[in-house]
């Protein structure tokens, strides 16, 4: 992966909203989708395309929903509790992408 990451400088991503995948009780931070983020995602998949054997993956370009999972497998009561907490206390988050492991 060293060759892939040599072409990238670190950058920041803002997470101004919270999203859900309600079918499996997932709550996630949703980033502002920037050209830099999409370019990194596309380049990653292009660089490692020989290892992608799942064309139905949710993570491939054109299917990917950018997110940072915060919790998953919540039941209905937990899900509603988290949404109430988010409504009352959520603030925009910022993260830096410095390297991939």
Please provide a written account of the structure.
It comes from Bacillus clarus. Keywords: Ligase. One of its GO terms (molecular function) is ligase activity. By secondary structure, the chain is of the alpha+beta class. It has a single domain, classed as Cyclic phosphodiesterase (Cyclic Phosphodiesterase, Chain: A, Alpha-Beta Complex), CATH 3.90.1140. It is 31% helix and 24% strand. The protein has helices spanning 2-5, 35-47, 76-89; strands at residues 11-15, 17-21, 26-30, 68-71, 93-97. The chain has a three-stranded antiparallel beta sheet with strand order 2-3-4, with helices on one face. It is globular.
List the helices and strands and how they pair.
Blueprint: H1 2-5, E1 11-15, E2 17-21, E3 26-30, H2 35-47, E4 68-71, H3 76-89, E5 93-97
Antiparallel strand pairs: 1-5, 2-3, 3-4
Outline of the structure:
By secondary structure, the protein is an alpha+beta fold. Helix content is 31%, strand content 24%.
From the alpha-carbon coordinates, what is the Rg to the nearest angstrom? 16 Å
Mean pLDDT: 88
How many strands in all? 5
Q: Please count the helical segments.
A: 3
The first-to-last residue Cα distance is 8 Å
Based on the coordinates given, report the CATH architecture: Alpha-Beta Complex
| The CATH class | Alpha Beta
> What is the H/E string?
HEEEHEHE
Low-confidence stretches: none
Query: What order do the strands of the largest sheet run in, or round the barrel if closed?
Result: 2-3-4
Largest sheet: 3 strands, antiparallel
Whole-number count of domains: 1
The fold-level CATH name is Cyclic Phosphodiesterase, Chain: A
Percent helix: 25-40%
Q: In terms of structural class, how would the helical and strand content be classed?
A: alpha+beta
CATH superfamily: Cyclic phosphodiesterase
């Amino acid at each position: 992966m060293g060759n892939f990451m040599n072409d990238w400088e670190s950058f920041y991503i803002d997470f101004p909203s919270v999203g859900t995948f309600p079918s499996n009780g997932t709550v996630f931070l949703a980033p502002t989708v920037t050209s830099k983020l999409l370019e990194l995602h596309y380049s990653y998949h292009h660089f490692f395309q020989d290892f992608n054997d799942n064309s139905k993956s949710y993570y491939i370009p054109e299917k990917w929903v950018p997110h940072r999972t915060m919790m998953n497998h919540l039941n209905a009561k937990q899900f509603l509790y988290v949404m109430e907490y988010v409504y009352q206390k959520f603030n925009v988050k910022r993260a830096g992408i410095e390297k991939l492991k």
